[in-house]
Design goal:
The protein is of the alpha/beta class. It has two domains: 87 residues, Leucine Dehydrogenase, chain A, domain 1 (Rossmann fold), CATH 3.40.50.10860; 132 residues, NAD(P)-binding Rossmann-like Domain (Rossmann fold), CATH 3.40.50.720. It is 39% helix and 17% strand. It has nine helices and eleven strands. β9 and β10 form a beta hairpin. α1 packs parallel to α9, α2 crosses α9 and α6 crosses α9. It is globular, with a radius of gyration of 19 Å. It starts with a strand and ends with a helix. The chain binds ligand LMY7XDAE. The ligand Nc1nc2c(c(=O)[nH]1)N[C@@H](CN(C=O)c1ccc(C(=O)N[C@@H](CCC(=O)O)C(=O)O)cc1)CN2 binds next to α2, β4, α6 and α9. One of its GO terms (cellular component) is cytosol. Catalyzes the oxidation of 5,10-methylenetetrahydrofolate to 5,10-methenyltetrahydrofolate and then the hydrolysis of 5,10-methenyltetrahydrofolate to 10-formyltetrahydrofolate. It comes from Sediminihabitans luteus. Homodimer. Pfam families: THF_DHG_CYH (PF00763), THF_DHG_CYH_C (PF02882).
Length: 293
């Protein structure tokens, strides 16, 4: 079996076209959504992701605002940037690019974001709404990567109801929150969250209908871990130096040979990453439409 591709690049492009139409309709009424970013330091991945977010904004007609801080920025410097974006009427939503350098308290930073401007859906108020609302319509921003994974699968005609999903990794942007979305009544999957304290991760993986690999360990999921016909989402990214060329290249959490066992697989790059960015834009547009009905 060779897996079919869950094409995040093409799906994100389709979503961006839909969003561009909605942004034009807002603009016709004098409403211009504005996305802010807070970037601390020069981590190459973070620099590239933030640049991509601003390129996306330009593509769909969303204004962008940048707060770029040096790697040695203090907690007070980061909080001052947050306060500026909270107060800026041109900024209708913003994100703080993660991870933050050691020494900056990430949770304190996330909690300082105005929940009404939380474009990442990571503020405790917005995560709390997800905890409470299992069957109601959600009118607050959703965490971008989890929302992007579900959208990617559903836009390929796959129904997740009744499926057993095994998630690898309990990080802030994916593992902690994806179960809240997958177990909503409109999705109806069953979720097992595995992590570095799980006794036998391989045993869980082998039973999964769907694997969400967000461990950040290159090539962690191998063909012998995957049930034939499973759906595999490759989320984690590692920058691995090629010993022959000395150049760094991106590697996902999933060994490419898994494509010989799975029914569906998301490439990495070109899978979940572009969907994360598309969902961020969707959160910004949704918020602007809710504020200006
Ligand atoms: N505040 C946040 N920080 C982080 C998040 C997040 O959702 N919010 N997620 C990740 C990084 N991330 C978004 O910020 C992200 C990751 C990957 C991509 C992407 O488009 N990747 C491309 C490859 C890009 C490259 O070549 O470098 C792909 O997969 O095709 C976008 C966003 C952690 N931080």
């Amino acid at each position: 079996m060779t897996a079919q591709i869950l094409d995040g690049k093409a799906t994100a492009a389709a979503i961006k076209s839909e969003l561009a139409v909605r942004v034009a309709a807002l603009a016709a009424r004098g409403v211009v959504p504005g996305l802010g970013t807070v970037l601390v330091g020069q981590d190459p991945g973070s620099v590239s992701y933030v640049a991509g977010k601003h390129r996306d904004c330009a593509e769909v007609g969303i204004a962008s605002i940048r707060e770029d801080l040096p790697a040695d920025a203090t907690q007070a410097d980061v909080e001052a940037a947050i306060d500026r974006l909270n107060a800026d009427p041109a900024c209708t939503g913003y994100i703080v690019q993660l991870p933050l350098p050691k020494g900056v308290d990430t949770n304190a930073v996330l909690e300082r974001i105005d929940p009404a401007k939380d474009a990442d859906g990571l503020h405790p108020t917005n995560l709390g709404r997800l905890v409470l609302r299992v069957s109601e319509e959600i009118t607050s921003p959703l965490p971008c990567t989890p929302a992007g994974i579900i959208e990617l699968v559903q836009r390929h005609g796959i129904d997740l109801a009744g499926k057993d999903v095994v998630v690898l990794g309990r990080g802030t942007t994916v593992g902690r929150s994806i179960g809240l979305l997958l177990t909503r009544k409109d999705v109806n999957a069953t979720v097992t969250l595995t992590h570095t304290g799980t006794a036998d991760v391989a045993a869980h993986l082998r039973t999964a209908d769907v694997v969400v690999a967000a461990a950040g360990v290159a090539g962690f999921v191998r063909p012998e871990h995957v049930k034939p016909g499973a759906i595999v989402l490759d989320v984690g990214v590692s920058r691995v130096v090629d010993p022959e060329t000395g150049k760094a290249r991106l590697r996902g959490d999933v060994d490419p040979a898994v494509a010989e066992v799975a029914a569906w697989i998301s490439p990495n790059p070109g899978g979940v990453g572009p969907m994360t960015r598309a969902m961020l834009l969707a959160n910004v547009v949704d918020t602007a439409e809710r504020l200006h009905p």
